[in-house]
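User: For documentation purposes, I need each entry recorded in a consistent format: the amino acid sequence on its own, followed directly by the corresponding structure tokens. There are two entries in this batch. Please keep commentary to a minimum and don't merge the entries.

Assistant: Recorded as requested. Entry 1:
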Amino acid sequence: MWREWLNKERARCLIRLGLMTEARGATLPDRDTKFMVAEDIVEVLRAKPDTGSNFLEFPELYFVRA
């Protein structure tokens, strides 16, 4: 799931930059699906404050807030 989401994000970026045509983009799977962090991972992040704060420092590309 993570790799699929990251590839969709790359495709969005290439389209925005004009490096991928909409025709090529139309052949890709649905790019509107949002990536959500699994609840068990969220629980670990909440239980370990240092880990959670580090996660929140990642660029937005790495997560989508619900």
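Entry 2:
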Amino acid sequence: MGSVKIALGDYEGALADYSVAITLDPQFYIAYNNRGAAKYFMGQPDSAMVDFDSALAILGNYVPAMNNKAASLSKNAMYKESLSLLTRLLKAIPALEKPILTGDW
């Protein structure tokens, strides 16, 4: 339900849903990431980063959390940190380690 609420702009409702999910399963890294996204959309990038960090503590290379944290860092004018995280994100996606377009044109 949290994802539907985010899509509908009900960020407070999504935050509540994801908080319940985290209470039921504290290792549910997707819920941390999505709750962080709700907080980000509510204009709370610092609080969102805590959730993104929680997701990454559970699954270190969880690309959606890395991407969302990078956006929060940028929102806080922490551009070097954001760039560093995005560089790590690209390395976490094996298909992006090599140029996508190769060969003769």
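Summary note for entry 2:
Residues 2-95 form a domain with the Serine Threonine Protein Phosphatase 5, Tetratricopeptide repeat fold (CATH 1.25.40.10).
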